[in-house]
Amino acid sequence: MPPDRLKTQANVATDRLRRESQRAKFAARASDRKTVVLELDEAGETLCVWYWPVNDDGGRVVPSDLASHRRSHQFRGPRCLCAFIDDDENSSYHREAAMIVLTRGPHAGEYVACCASSKCGYIVFIEQIHQYSGVPVKTYPRRNADEPRPHEIVFLDGNDIKLEDVIQRRQLRRHETNLVFDKLLKLDSFCRPGLTQAEFHHFLTRCNGCDLIMTRRMFERHDCVGSGMRRGNSEKTEVIDLTSDSEGDNDE
Fold it and tell me: Which of 83, 117, 159, 184 is most buried, by CB atoms within 10 Å?
């Protein structure tokens, strides 16, 4: 096989791996949010906010009425991630998520928005988000009487989405959150307080772009907005060291 063709195939494989990794991050970020629904943007390249519809009286449409509101108003459900991973010419075509009720697992009976074809792993717990009072909303215009109604979104319960796996990942993240709080409490505990230096460095880190300090677990999902004073170091992270006395000397 010619070297140029091998190089092309390697580039294609690398790009697919990169997009698959990014898809997994998008899916995790959308599933983790509890105050806003995230969807794929129109360009099919990143996540953006999906605005919850409101009724004529200004109240938010309850999850069980979203399907009927979709028929009566110029409103659609959130986009899933299929357009991000598809290679065909219609990759920018809107792929609307299905809004269904879970029938199994600890969240049985709750409404979720998920990939209609069980392909991209997109799932958002919309019923939980609906309970948040600050969720972004929008008033959508009514459809005209002679305006065609949108087709119903049919959910295909395939094996790729694995809703049980998503729920298990949420439970695992909840356990990881409890471990984080345990470490924070040890810093201010009367009983055997403190962390070792190794535990501390493994626990916290700092973003060189915005100088914010956070746990390493949260840094993996950190969207840096930068700051006026950027560091010249090209590395993104820097482990902080609070054991030195340099800051204390500057405060005196």
Answer: 83
